[in-house]
Structures are given as structure tokens and as C-alpha cells.
Specification:
alpha+beta, Aldehyde Oxidoreductase, domain 4, seven-stranded mixed β-sheet, five-stranded mixed β-sheet
Length: 733
């Protein structure tokens, strides 16, 4: 099915199942321990699996001169040791900046250099500790600020985006701001580690793994091994969090496959937590210079946003300027990316890549500019709203309710009680402040397919390789099929995360829910046609409701259509040119109240509100869970999360959950989420958009702005740890 014209009235609009706050259908399996995660496929193979432990590089860049393996080979229970020398030919793939198995060249710290396979995990771990690796280290580059200052290694990965004459407009503006902001390297820190079990049956490889994008993972694993794609099956029905860290093939899957081939039996590999931060991917640090120019009345005349980030050779930049190209009006614009070559582990997608760190800077800058202008921060944003793409006024937004988000949030949050004078509100030892920030994330769509089956008993089964990373995919896909075929949700079985099923959009970029349900919509439309034909009805006139099919004054039970045998239909949704004709985006307004201890500088979040405009909300309950989780992630990014770089040796020092501090229950206050009534016919037949990343975009800036309002201290360097506040706090002597 091609989606090339805005959606008209369709079966989803009935909203008898869609749009309702259903509990997750996979919830009982998860709370009873019956949902099988990647490391838990104990009975999937005839023989018991062996265990693999990965050995990571102890230098950031250089070469391996010698690997001493004899002691490890002699260790009890050892079955095989795989290194680059014994793995056979491995082919590079575009989605990995560095080889997943290194040697002799080392590309980054903790790059996998070997996997040790033994009968038990303990034996494999003990043997891995017996391996001695000798290196010839090379001098690396690990400091983004230093690389920016030097300038020699900087690349411009894409041409600067210019509209009008930014430099002239900025120099002539009545009120200007020129400030630089720093966001640190961050870890995905998902609960479930990267883990895989692999088994060969002849030349057929099956991997049970934790991966957000089934077809990407299958394709890249086959390419890396140099085997046909149809020889690889990838299974990932339940994923314990990914946040972009499991978008691509990672070392656990490749090494499990290599280890299983070498040991001639199934092998399990789970990356140990200290290895994940440096071995896999992370959100790269940025340095962002933002320049704003405005009239005395507060109309932006110049908007400039330049961002510097670093990556391995072949890696991509953190696209922190992309929201600035679309969020606010202004006739003269500059958006530019600069990429430095660094020898740190690969930087890649983490929840709302680009917009999250970009808004951490832009929305502080907007707050600073509002103060310079003497305007309320909300009013300043409203004055610079636009209903068209600022760089291409002929291209309107399909839906844009940013102003409504801001006004609704201001009313619900009690914004009128905020003091415009920083440091003016005191509650005992706490300085209290409020902050606001706009949220923005583009609406992305991707081709997505599904297969739908109707059994003789009326049971509906949906099969698609879509994944559920804790987001509620099972439930909204079930709701879609139930709505389309007129049956209760309990009558639908959903099967996900297996490459034997039709290729779906996968979970990433906020495109998963909208795209995958649209794919199920397409398959259900095909099945509706088959059902109507089997019942001798006109497919165009047939109505599916309450387990019955009605047309032309006749009514038959849905199940009757399958009495001669199961009916099966398969189709995909393909998106055409509407993305070019309309700018499709999601919007939010984030409000935060903080307390800052007047003596210690400790910051505590008191309450939070997110108002979101993100198309039709398919399940308000699961969508709310996504947003409050994102808000919690925003607390961490604002106040505690930072991968600390050892600039001598080139690795992240705090590479575990003891040193990398994510929010805990005590950090999370009252959270409220409001979804504005919206359906976007340009987006998909579902008229939905994504919301899971939108809930993060802007949160950290709202926290930073609230801290400023509480203390009068402006921090432009994340996270906002107490040491950055102490010097500016009032004298309490």
C-alpha cells in the first residue's frame, strides 16, 4: 500500500479500541518472568549452550603485537578462543564505524579482541582473565575542545545551511546573544545488557539477540560473515531497553556467531556492564555556539547555531542543529556542523539524536535572550512561532501546536506564580525556581510490513518483525488489528521480533509506533478484502464491527470467512512524497520546578509537566509511560549523567552504573503528561506520530532554566552538578 495522499475517513477513526488506555498485553508475561529475553533462551537448542566472554582492548589506539593465549586454552572447560587471526574473513558494514572484532589494529578502548568459550560462564570468565595482550600504543586524540581549538582535523560533513545574510543581520540586531554550550558524552544505560545466543545448523545461523532493528541486524550480520542473508535468522521478541544503543549489529551478536561456529555448539555471549560504555556506542559530546539577534520587541532576525562533535573515522556527527532549522521563525539563518576525528568509542544514535543535545543548548539560549529582552520566556517563544518551514515558506507544517502546548502548560503548571526575578523565591533552605523549554522532534516514517491471519475460531494473529523495546509495540499493534477487523483486543495474538516475519520499521527514531501500526493497517485492509470476498460481500462497503461483517443489508460472523481454511494477507505501507510537501514534526512544552539547596547547591526536581502535540495517541497509557520515562531521562541528562573521558588514555572512566549516575526513584518527583487532541492526516493512515523521544527533547533545558530562575546562576555546561553552582550561591554566613 502506498501512502501518497492525506488520509481520509478510515476504519481507525472509529477509535473503539485505538486511542483507549489498554494495559500492555505483554505485561503479565514480563511480571511473571515468562517473557524470554536474549540471555534466557535456555531450551531453544537441542544441546545446552556454552558461554562466551569478550576480552576488550586495553588501549585506545595502536596495534596488538602479541596475544598470549596458551594459559587460557589450558584453563578448565575452555572449548575455543576466537580472535581476528582465527575468525576467518570479516567484511565491514556501513552501519559500524569500527570493526566489531579488532586486531591487530585497535580502533578504540575496549574494542573486542577475543571471545573465550567454555562450558560455564565462570570458566569462560576465568580463562579470559588468563589472556595477556601486548600492545604498541599510538598517540590518540580524545579532547573535543582541544580538537575544536586546533581546527586541523575538523570536517564539514554537510554544507552549512544558510538563509538570508546571517552575519549582517546579527551584526545589525538591536539585541544579541552569543554563547557556547557543552553537552557531555552520555551512555544509553539500558537495563538489559547487549546479549546474544547463537547456534549453527549446517550453514544456517540463528541468533537470539537484543536488537531494535531486526532486518538491519540480520543484513549486517550476514554481510559481515560473508554469507547469504537467507542463511541468517534473527530472533528478538523482548528487549529490555535500547534507546538507540541496539539499533545496529554489535559485537555480542557477531562474536556469539563466531564462537558457536568455532565451538560447534550454541554459545551465549553477554557484554559485561563495564564493557558496554566503551565497546558499544554512546551519545557524543557537543560544543554548540548559538547566536541570536532580535528587534527590541522580541522578533528574531538572526539565528545561528554551530555544533562541534567528534567521532571515529567514518562516523557521523551529532546533528545538534537540526531542530534550530525548523523551530522558530527568523529571516536570516545559519546552521552548521563540524566533525572532529577522535579516538574515543563510536558516537551514534541515542534517544532523539540531534534534537536532544541541540535543544539542551538552544532552549537555554532562548531563555537567556528572553531575559535580555525583558520578555516572559513563553511570550518570547510565541512571538517567534511559525506555521511554515522557515527556510522554505512554501512548505507548511502538517500540524503545529507549539503555541497551544506552551499556553496549556502555562495554565496547568501555574506559570503566573513564577517570579521573573531570579533567586527571589525561598522555601526554607531551598531556593525555588521554574523553567520552561520547547520540545521538538521530527516525525519520521519508514516502510513497514505485516502478515495477518484469521482462523476458523475468529482468532486473529499478527506477524511482523517489529520489536518492542519496552514501548508497548505489542499492545498498539494488537489494538490496530482489533480496530480494523472489529474484534476485541483479547481476540488478537501479536508475534514480533523474528526475521521470519515481514520486515517492519523497527524501533528507532520515534518512527516505530506510527510506521509499524500503519503496516498492520495495510495488511488488515488486504485481509478485509479477502474476508468480504469469502463472504460474498462488496469489500468497499463491508463494515467490521463486534465480530461481524455487514454489507448490503447482510451480516455474517467474521469467523465464517475462514471456515474453509485460514485466511492470510500480507502487505506493507510505503510512504511517498508527502514528507517533501509538508514539514511533519512533533511539539511539546516542558515545565519544571526545582529547589536548590542554598548551602550545598544540591538541585532537586519538585514537579514536572509535559504538554505534547504528537498526532493521534494510539494508547494514552503506554504513551504516557514513554513520556514520563523520557522526562526521567531528561533529569539525568540535566543533573548527573556524564561519561567522563580519561584524556590521557582515551576511555570512559565511569563505565558502569555505580559511576555513571542515572536517576533513581528518589530523584523523580510528580510528573504530569497532557496530550493535545490532534490527528495528522498527512502522517499515515493511523494519523499518528511518534512521542517517545519528544518527551525527552527540551527537558534538560527546562531544568537548567529553572535552576537559573531559582539561583540567578547560569550554567552552560552539562550536567548541572553542585560544584558549578557553589561559587554563585548567596552568602549564608
Amino acid at each position: 500500500m502506498k501512502f501518497d495522499t492525506p488520509a481520509g475517513r478510515n476504519p481507525i477513526d472509529a477509535q473503539t479500541v485505538i486511542g483507549k488506555p489498554h494495559d500492555r498485553i505483554d505485561g503479565p508475561l514480563k511480571v511473571t518472568g515468562k517473557a524470554t529475553y536474549a540471555h534466557e533462551w535456555h531450551d531453544a537448542t537441542p544441546s545446552a549452550p556454552a558461554y562466551g566472554v569478550v576480552v576488550g582492548a586495553g588501549i585506545a589506539t595502536g596495534t596488538v603485537t602479541r596475544m598470549e593465549l596458551d594459559a587460557a586454552r589450558r584453563s578448565p572447560g575452555v572449548l575455543a578462543i576466537v580472535t581476528a587471526d582465527t575468525a576467518g574473513p570479516l567484511h565491514p558494514v556501513k552501519r559500524n564505524a569500527a570493526p566489531l572484532l579488532g586486531g591487530p589494529k585497535v580502533h578504540h578502548y575496549h574494542q573486542a579482541l577475543a571471545v573465550v568459550v567454555a562450558e560455564t560462564f565462570e570458566q569462560a570468565r576465568a580463562a579470559a582473565g588468563q589472556i595477556r595482550i601486548r600492545y604498541a600504543p599510538q598517540r590518540g586524540h580524545f579532547d573535543l575542545a582541544e580538537a575544536k581549538q586546533a581546527g586541523a582535523s575538523l570536517q564539514t560533513p554537510e554544507p552549512d545551511a544558510r538563509v538570508g545574510d546571517f552575519e549582517k543581520a546579527f551584526s545589525q540586531a538591536a539585541v544579541t546573544l552569543d554563547a557556547t554550550y557543552h553537552t557531555p558524552d552520555q551512555s544509553h544505560a539500558m537495563m538489559e545488557p547487549h546479549a546474544t545466543m547463537a547456534a549453527w545448523e549446517g550453514d544456517q545461523l540463528t541468533v537470539w539477540t537484543s536488537n531494535q532493528m531486526i532486518d538491519w541486524g540480520r543484513t549486517d550480520l550476514a554481510r559481515t560473515l560473508g554469507i547469504a542473508k537467507d542463511k541468517v535468522r534473527l530472533v528478538s521478541p523482548y528487549i529490555g531497553g535500547g534507546f538507540g544503543g541496539k539499533l545496529f549489529l554489535r559485537s555480542d551478536a557477531l562474536l556469539a556467531a563466531l564462537a558457536a561456529r568455532a565451538a560447534k555448539r550454541p554459545v551465549k555471549v553477554a557484554l559485561q556492564r563495564p564493557l558496554i560504555a566503551n565497546n558499544t556506542t554512546h551519545r557524543p559530546a557537543t560544543l554548540q555556539r548559538i547566536r541570536l539577534g532580535a528587534t527590541p520587541e522580541g522578533s528574531l532576525t538572526a539565528i545561528g547555531h554551530e555544533s562541534w562533535s567528534g567521532n571515529l573515522p567514518g562516523g557521523s556527527p551529532e546533528e545538534a542543529v537540526q531542530q534550530t532549522r525548523l523551530l522558530y521563525a527568523g529571516p536570516n539563518r545559519l546552521a552548521a556542523l563540524r566533525l572532529a576525528t577522535l579516538d574515543l568509542p563510536e558516537g551514534n544514535a541515542m534517544r532523539a539524536p540531534g534534537e536532544t543535545p541541540g535543544l539542551m543548548a538552544l532552549e537555554i539560549a532562548m531563555d537567556e535572550m528572553a531575559i535580555k529582552l525583558g520578555l516572559d520566556p513563553i511570550e518570547f517563544r510565541i512571538r517567534n512561532d511559525t506555521q511554515v518551514d522557515p527556510s522554505n515558506p512554501e512548505r507548511p507544517f502538517s500540524q503545529r501546536q507549539l503555541v497551544q502546548c506552551l499556553r496549556t502548560g502555562a495554565e496547568r503548571f501555574g506559570w503566573q506564580q513564577r517570579s521573573a526575578s531570579p533567586g527571589a523565591v525561598r522555601d526554607g533552605r531551598w531556593l525555588v525556581g521554574m523553567g520552561v523549554a520547547a520540545g521538538f522532534r521530527n516525525n519520521l516514517v519508514m516502510k513497514s510490513g505485516a502478515r495477518v491471519r484469521l482462523a476458523a475460531d475468529g482468532q486473529v494473529t499478527v506477524e511482523t518483525d517489529m520489536t518492542d523495546i519496552g514501548t508497548g509495540s505489542y499492545t498498539i499493534i494488537g489494538q490496530t488489528a482489533a480496530e480494523m477487523l472489529g474484534v476485541p483486543l483479547q481476540q488478537v495474538t501479536v508475534k514480533l521480533g523474528d526475521s521470519r516475519y515481514p520486515v517492519a520499521a523497527g524501533s528507532g527514531g520515534q518512527w516505530g509506533a506510527n510506521s509499524s501500526t500503519a503496516g498492520v493497517y495495510a495488511a488488515c485492509m488486504a485481509l478485509r478484502t479477502k474476508v468480504a470476498q469469502a463472504l460474498g460481500m462488496d469489500p468497499a462497503a463491508a463494515q467490521f464491527e463486534a465480530g461481524k461483517v455487514t454489507a448490503g443489508g447482510r451480516s455474517r460472523a467474521l469467523a465464517d470467512a475462514a471456515q474453509a481454511g485460514e485466511l492470510v494477507a500480507e502487505d506493507s505501507i510505503e510512504f511517498d512524497t508527502l514528507q517533501e510537501k509538508y514539514q511533519q514534526s512533533t511539539f511539546a512544552a516542558h515545565f519544571v520546578e526545582v529547589g536548590v539547596d542554598v548551602a550545598s547547591g544540591e538541585s532537586r526536581i519538585r514537579r514536572m509537566l509535559a504538554v505534547c502535540a504528537a498526532g493521534r495517541i494510539l494508547n494514552p497509557k503506554t504513551a504516557r509511560s514513554q513520556v514520563i520515562g523520557a522526562m526521567t531521562m531528561g533529569i539525568g541528562a540535566a543533573l548527573s549523567e556524564e561519561l567522563v573521558v580519561d584524556r590521557r588514555l582515551g576511555f570512559f572512566v565511569n563505565h558502569d552504573l555505580a559511576g555513571y549516575e542515572v536517576p533513581v526513584h528518589a530523584d523523580v518527583p510528580h510528573q504530569e503528561v497532557v496530550f493535545l487532541d490532534e490527528s495528522d492526516a498527512v502522517s499515515s493512515p493511523m494519523k499518528a506520530k511518534g512521542v517517545g523521544e519528544l518527551g525527552l527533547c527540551g527537558v534538560s533545558a527546562a531544568v537548567a532554566n529553572a535552576v537559573y530562575n531559582a539561583t540567578g546562576i547560569r550554567v552552560r555546561d552539562y550536567p548541572l552538578t553542585l560544584d558549578k553552582l557553589l561559587a554563585g550561591l548567596p552568602d549564608i554566613a
